[in-house]
């Protein structure tokens, strides 16, 4: 019975790893490039 739980845990770990690996990530903003969120604008007021 313990062997079955070990196999289930291994299968879940592999499935989670595959999903984690394939999730699209946001590209990191390089220095000097605009992010597009308006954070480089001075505050109004």
What's the multimeric state? single chain
Strand content: under 5%
Order of helices and strands: H
- Largest sheet entry: none
Discrete helix count? 1
- Helix amount, in percent? 40-55%
**Structural class per helix/strand content?**
mainly alpha
Are there runs of 5+ residues with pLDDT below 50, and where? none
Task: Kindly describe this structure.
- This protein has 45 residues and is mainly α.
- The protein has one helix and no strands.
- It has one helix spanning 2-22.
In short:
Helix content is 47%, strand content 0%.
Sum up the structure in keywords:
rod-shaped, mainly alpha, single chain, 0% strand, 1 helix, 45 residues
Task: Summarize the SSE layout with pairings.
Layout lengths: L1 H21 L23
